[in-house]
């Protein structure tokens, strides 16, 4: 697993590679332990556990791009419909020597962008109409280079898989609660056993969810910094990316909070978070590093390129 596709000119990132490998190893181990614990606890229901877990994993991995596009209201667009957008992506893909992903637009006033897909062949880069209206051409180029680097680094697929375990843990918890409330027999012994199993399943699911949540948040924050670095180095214009970051963050802050909350569930995929964490404790749970941290990094790259 490399943090840069073997055929792209995006700068490889060993820090991102090592973090992705460690995250996938820990989450894979956690998934095995989690499934084993559920088989033991739920006993006769273990075929259902394996079937549900396997089915959900296949669905999320193979159809993650379609699911994300549908959830965010994105639709694929042609070069005739959005010539500037396609032209910029064509130039960046030629510069990075990578296959062109599908190009999509979401009719949303929130200025943002995201990339998704399990590999380069299935990748899609999407921008909102709000982003296209607000950014200058060189700023848009910086944002698109950032999103393309996610595809080249293959961290989109890793985030998709990493997020799956937390989703599964949440579903299992709901299933256990539902079974506990509406299942069970009339005998006291059965009720006591059901209660113990219910508590055990909820406890295991909660621990798994917490660990997967923290691991994916740590990886998500680092991958955003890695994408900023790669985009700035590829385009040679870190100031344009910094300008886009500042503009997008400021414009998002002006959008009503109620509207932003609808998009918050997809923060990990966005170029900039729909709702930024302000407090130190909240920043530890954030999907993105702070704006100040991102701008400071771009400032250092700008100084290096200037020398």
What does this structure look like?
69% of the residues lie in helices and 6% in strands. It has 307 residues and is mainly alpha-helical. It has a domain at 69-152: 2-Layer Sandwich (Zincin-like), CATH 3.30.2010.10. A four-stranded mixed sheet has the order 1-2-4-3, sandwiched between helices. Strand 3 (113-116) and strand 4 (124-128) form a beta hairpin. Helix 4 packs across helix 6 and helix 9 packs antiparallel against helix 12. The longest helix is centred in the last third of the chain and has 48 residues, at 188-235. The mean pLDDT is 82. It is a multi-pass membrane protein. Its main location: membrane. Belongs to the peptidase M48B family.
């Amino acid at each position: 697993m490399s943090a840069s596709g073997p055929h792209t000119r995006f700068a490889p990132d060993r820090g991102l590679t090592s973090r992705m490998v460690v995250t996938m190893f820990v989450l894979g181990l956690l998934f095995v332990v989690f499934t084993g614990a559920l088989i033991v606890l739920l006993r006769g229901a273990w075929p259902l556990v394996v079937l549900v877990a396997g089915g959900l994993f296949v669905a999320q991995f193979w159809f993650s791009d379609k699911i994300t596009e549908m959830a965010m209201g994105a639709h694929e667009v042609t070069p005739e419909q959005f010539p500037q957008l396609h032209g910029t992506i064509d130039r960046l893909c030629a510069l990075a020597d990578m296959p062109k992903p599908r190009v999509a637009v979401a009719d949303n006033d929130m200025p943002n962008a995201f990339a998704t897909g399990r590999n380069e062949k299935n990748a899609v880069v999407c921008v909102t109409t709000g982003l296209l209206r607000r950014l200058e051409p060189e700023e848009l180029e910086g944002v698109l280079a950032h999103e393309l680097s996610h595809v080249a680094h293959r961290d989109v697929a890793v985030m998709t898989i990493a997020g799956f375990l937390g989703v599964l843990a949440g579903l299992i918890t709901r299933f256990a609660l539902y079974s506990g409330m509406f299942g069970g027999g009339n005998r006291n012994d059965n009720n006591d056993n059901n209660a113990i199993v219910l508590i055990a399943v909820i406890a295991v699911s909660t621990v798994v969810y917490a660990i997967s949540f923290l691991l994916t948040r740590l990886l998500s924050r680092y991958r955003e910094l890695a994408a900023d670095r790669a985009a700035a180095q590829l385009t040679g214009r870190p100031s344009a990316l910094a300008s886009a970051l500042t503009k997008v963050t400021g414009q998002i802050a002006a959008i009503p909070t109620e509207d932003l909350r609808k998009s918050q569930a997809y923060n990990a995929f966005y170029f900039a978070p729909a709702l930024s964490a302000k407090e130190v404790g909240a920043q530890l749970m954030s999907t993105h590093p702070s704006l100040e941290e991102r701008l400071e990094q771009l400032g250092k790259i700008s100084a290096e390129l200037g020398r």
